[in-house]
């Protein structure tokens, strides 16, 4: 099994104009196989890390945003205006969903789970130790206790 990174991780876009740092590990990493994520990436799934906005620093460059009608509430994708690399998305206030393959160390955070696998590509085999959910998951029962505690603390801090 790949050891998850513990320290600050650096990342950026394909052309190098945008650079950022994640100052801690994501609360949760996941591979989403929904058709929206497939279309957004032009690939079979997207690998994202759910992390507090306060733990991510934009080091250089500027990003452009695009609002998309994805999911129940929609999303705002932040991307490099020069090369188009999607860096992170905002689905809920106070959190970024960082594209983990934009990290310099692309293997730092393997997925904790696969979601929306009802629409995964049929040739993709998901057998193994990583939990697979046909749709979404139940955060209260499916997240490990330490990840749920960190999420709840962040939500409380955001609420003030």
Descriptive account of the structure:
The protein has helices at residues 35-41, 139-142, 145-159; strands at 9-12, 19-22, 28-32, 46-52, 56-60, 64-68, 75-79, 86-90, 95-99, 113-115. By secondary structure, the protein is an alpha+beta fold. The chain has a single domain (9-159), classed as Alpha-Beta Complex (glutathione-dependent formaldehyde- activating enzyme (gfa)). The longest helix has 15 residues, at 145-159. The chain is globular and about 40 Å long.
The CATH topology name reads glutathione-dependent formaldehyde- activating enzyme (gfa)
Q: Please tell me the overall pLDDT.
A: 91
Regarding CATH, which class?
A: Alpha Beta
N- to C-terminal distance: 38 Å
Query: What count of structural domains?
Result: 1
Q: Would you identify the CATH H-level superfamily?
A: glutathione-dependent formaldehyde- activating enzyme (gfa)
Structural class, by secondary structure, is: alpha+beta
Low-confidence parts: none
Major sheet: arrangement of strands: 6-7-8-9-4-3-10
What string, H for helix and E for strand, traces the elements in order? Answer: EEEHEEEEEEEHH
Topology (SSEs and partners):
Elements: E1 9-12, E2 19-22, E3 28-32, H1 35-41, E4 46-52, E5 56-60, E6 64-68, E7 75-79, E8 86-90, E9 95-99, E10 113-115, H2 139-142, H3 145-159
């Amino acid at each position: 099994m790949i050891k998850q990174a513990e320290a600050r991780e650096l990342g950026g876009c394909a052309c190098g104009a945008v650079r950022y740092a994640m100052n801690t590990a994501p609360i949760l990493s996941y591979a989403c196989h929904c058709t929206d994520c497939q279309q957004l990436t032009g690939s079979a799934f997207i690998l994202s890390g759910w992390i507090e906005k306060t733990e991510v620093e934009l080091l250089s460059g500027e990003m452009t945003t695009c609002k998309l009608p994805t999911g129940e509430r929609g999303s705002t994708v932040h991307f490099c205006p020069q090369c188009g690399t999607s860096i992170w998305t905002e689905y809920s206030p106070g959190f970024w969903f960082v594209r983990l393959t934009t990290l310099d160390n692309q293997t730092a955070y393997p997925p904790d789970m696969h979601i929306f696998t009802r629409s995964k590509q049929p040739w993709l085999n998901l057998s193994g130790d990583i939990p697979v959910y046909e749709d979404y998951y139940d955060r209260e029962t499916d997240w490990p206790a330490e990840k749920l505690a960190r999420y709840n603390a962040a939500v409380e801090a955001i609420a003030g």
